[in-house]
Amino acid sequence: MNTWRPDSWQSRTALQQPVYRKSDEVEDVLRTLSQLPPLVTAWEVDRLQTQLAEAASGRAFVLQGGDCSESFADCNANTILRKLKVIIQMSLVLICGSKQRVVRIGRIAGQYAKPRSTDTEKRGAVELPSYRGDIINCSGFSPDEREPNPQLLLRAYERSALTMNYIRALSEGGFADLHHPENWDLEFVRNTPGSRRYQELLESLSDSIRFMEIVSSGELEQLTRVNFYTSHEGLHLLYEQALTRTDQRQRGYYNLSTHLPWIGERTRAIDGAHVEYFRGIRNPIGVKVGNTLAADELIDLIRVLNPQNIPGRLTLIHRFGAEKIAARLPALATAVRRSGLNVLWSCDPMHGNTQSTRNGFKTRSFDDITSEIITAFRVHADCGTRLSGIHLELTGEDVTECTGGPANLTESDLPRDYRSQVDPRLNYEQAMEIAFLLAEQTRSGH
Ligand code: PEP
Ligand code: CO
User: Fold this and answer.
1) Which atom of ligand 1 is nearest to the CA of 114?
2) DSSP class of residue 118?
3) What are phi and psi of 80, to 5 degrees?
């Protein structure tokens, strides 16, 4: 195999990359980016890998979630706070239900680049480049807005840093204190069976904390903060390369733009640029696994991405769709188990279940999502493998993007508060319902 360098991917075919008109400007921006401080540290990245290894061996569960695509406009206190609140609330439900630790990972602080199925978008007679995420161009439908703009790389780095800074402050300080779960309340929560279940769980948790503190005579310091990691699709390789740094101990290269970058379904070709870039970084990494991947190809891909078979290094995030998972997953899970390769299995029940409604909204049905999750647990148990994580598109807002769930949203409810520029997200109530389902599934001993 060729020698890896942070730029060795440039000799391979890189899909889904923007075409910039002014290459001088791109060079300037990348030079600036490569001199700015990293957003995370190698110590944090290593710690996450250890926790993922624990999850893969059955001692923790990975909860990864956030927007399909973050937007610059949503880089504000309230939106970030609500995302954190919903993920923390979900993790509590999971901890109480599964009696396992939960590794919390946001699709946040850098989830700005989107793969698209077509290079252009047509509206009437007008055809313009597709919107590829706020790091590349703007979602408005005019030639100026759709032109890829290299300055947006810097704007994305800055928003990622601002988001990261706020997350760190919240997860270290009083906000994340388990003694004060009221900090995570959301203002619009209705009095539903789900919210009552959550309140009951908090009450029994408070009792347990009081008990623990009495027997250990003092406040339990570890309960006053939470671990929270970041992740994004490592799609825009020039950006990822500019944030790739050697660590203090000079043991190799880390992508220090995020803790856990992942390779998307459209860019996981074994001889492609993304796989080349990812194989050389020391972060734990994810790869999306969809319906077109055969078992032998998957085994080859795992060997390239994790040649030393390091536990926690590689998370396989499968996304087949409710209808296909039972037919597709067994061959892959069985082949990986037989090969003795270490992977963490996570289920993305969102991306195989996207549909368009008659009135032109992209949506997902809550029932398809739950059905894919339940099947994933069952198939892994049947194959002798273990589902150790979930990957969701969700928000802490009260949006109407996915149908079904506790409020039984229908297609005609979608226009009321549909905000996503790309994929539909679970709203708060739907996300909490999934957390209860996961708690039940992990408890039932799969
Ligand atoms: C995504 O996670 O938003 C995404 C584009 O997923 P996939 O690569 O699985 O299609
Ligand atoms: Co998506």
Assistant:
1) 5
2) S
3) -65, -45
SS3 call for 70: coil
Between the alpha carbon of residue 287 and those of residues 12, 276, 278, 315, the distances in Å are 18, 13, 10, 6
**Nearest of 56, 86, 16, 107 to residue 391 by alpha carbon:** 107
CATH of domain 42-113+150-175+183-190+227-443: 3.20.20.70
Going by alpha carbons, the residue nearest to atom 2 of ligand 1 is: 68
- Does any ligand 1 atom lie closer than 6 A to the CB of residue 115? yes
Distance 6 CA to ligand 1 centre (A): 24
Q: Is the CB of 146 under 6 A from ligand 1?
A: no
Residue 301 pLDDT more than 80? Answer: yes
Q: Is 321 in the pocket of ligand 1 (CB under 6 A)?
A: no
- Residue ranges in 192-236 assigned as alpha helix (H): 193-215
Beta partners for residue 318, in sequence order: 289, 347
- Over residues 118-155, the pLDDT tens digits come to 999 999 999 999 999 999 999 999 999 999 999 999 99
